[in-house]
Amino acid sequence: MERIAVFPGSFDPFTVGHQSIVERALPLFDKIIIAIGYNSEKKQFFPVEKRIQWIKECFNNDPRIEVDVYGGLTVEYCKTKNALFILRGLRTAADFEFERAIAQTNKKMVYDIESIFLLTTPEHTMITSTIVRDIMRHGGDASQFVPAVQDPDAYKL
Ligand code: ADP
């Protein structure tokens, strides 16, 4: 059976920290689905179509990587994709506490789905989409924190 992992997140925008987690997890799985959680109530910074396009570009359309959008519960989405693994990155102790509660709840809901955590590499620990958005919002240069994309105006507002 194919080992499929879902990497869920807002990815608003997708950062080099996210990219590193996916690249390091690739040897563990046959396929990784980068799944953008969509919530119509939640304000978004970059349109979801743009986020999909930039993530795809970042992995050069690698067939082992799928990019998708989902709504509702992550475990339900995993079932529709036959994914038995949820991939998440851990930066700090705060991340751990937050992730622990979600992963244990998910386990209670669907026992067969395992959450897998990779520790962030030290150089990516401080990168958050929130800070990257702030830099962009104020016209700063955030290029070192996001994967390079073809459109030079991609992240300009
Ligand atoms: P969410 O809104 O679900 O927290 P994010 O897009 O912020 O979504 O993050 C998705 C996943 O990527 C989470 O597991 C998060 O811990 C991880 N992540 C975020 N930033 C980094 C980073 N700099 N390095 C490694 N993992 C990260």
Plain-language structure description:
The chain has 157 residues and is an alpha/beta fold. It has one domain: HUPs (Rossmann fold, 3-Layer(aba) Sandwich), CATH 3.40.50.620. The protein is 34% helix and 20% strand. The chain contains five helices and five strands; from the N terminus they run E-H-E-H-E-H-E-H-E-H. A five-stranded parallel beta sheet has the order 3-2-1-4-5, with helices on both faces. The radius of gyration is 15 Å and the shape is globular. The N and C termini lie far apart (44 Å).
Task: Give a brief rundown of this model.
With 157 residues, this protein is of the alpha/beta class.
What keyword list fits this structure?
single chain, 157 residues, alpha/beta, Rossmann fold, 5-stranded parallel β-sheet, 5 helices, 5 strands, binds adenosine-5'-diphosphate
Strand-helix topology:
Elements: E1 4-9, H1 16-25, E2 31-37, H2 48-58, E3 65-70, H3 74-80, E4 85-90, H4 93-109, E5 114-119, H5 129-137
Parallel strand pairs: 1-2, 1-4, 2-3, 4-5
